[in-house]
């Protein structure tokens, strides 16, 4: 996994934050297994596509949750410490992946 130049600025997540993210990821994992079974069972393509869309939406929601926390903690801290431009540029580059 690629480390960014500000990886040292990361603040540890709370137990509650970790728990929520992990639970959401496990739900997505279950959905993916369900789609795998749908493919094995030759289920109707539209039904598979609907499930794939739900998986994408769930992953997007998790991503935005992580993004929100990063913005409110890591980016805010960087701005307070006087190197906000670096964090903002990094954030803008990451946002390109969410479009």
TrEMBL record:
Molecular function per GO: DNA binding; metal ion binding
Matches recorded under InterPro entries: Metal_Tscrpt_repr, Metal_Tscrpt_repr_sf
Source species, domain of life: Bacteria
GO biological process: negative regulation of DNA-templated transcription
Protein's name according to its UniProt entry: Repressor CsoR of the copZA operon
Protein's organism: Sporolactobacillus inulinus
């Amino acid at each position: 996994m690629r480390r960014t130049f500000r990886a040292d600025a990361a603040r540890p997540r709370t137990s509650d934050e970790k728990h929520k993210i992990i639970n959401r990821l496990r739900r997505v994992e279950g959905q993916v297994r369900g789609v795998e079974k749908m493919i094995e069972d030759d289920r109707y393509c539209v039904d598979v596509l609907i499930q794939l869309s739900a998986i994408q939406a769930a992953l997007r929601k998790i991503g935005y949750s992580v993004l929100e926390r990063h913005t409110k903690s890591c980016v805010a801290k960087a701005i307070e410490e006087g190197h906000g431009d670096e964090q903002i540029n990094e954030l803008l580059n990451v946002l390109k992946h969410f479009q």
